[in-house]
Design a protein that fits this description.
Length: 112
Amino acid sequence: QVQLVESGGGLVQPGASITLSCVVSGFSLAYYHIGWFRQAPGKEREGVGCISSTDGSTYLRDFAKGRFTITRENAKNTVYLQMDSLKPEDTAVYYCHGIGSWGQGTQVTVSS
């Protein structure tokens, strides 16, 4: 059974950093791309970026470039989303996605 579980969200101040984790089970991370998405209140879900299964290369949306980093640790079947220099507009529920399945999401709130 494919399952993705996010964790690491919380309340942080503007300018702070936070790292989210996505632990996958039911498939090997080494063979599938994983994407990160987010959904802010009242807005549609949007892509943040993704990481390739083949060479670990990443793609990030413009708003994430220079601030967010996606990495993976195949041995732990875990993908990470490190977010630096957080802004209030980064407040959202963050989801990981793979093999057509979604995690339950983890809330990130950026507020002073």
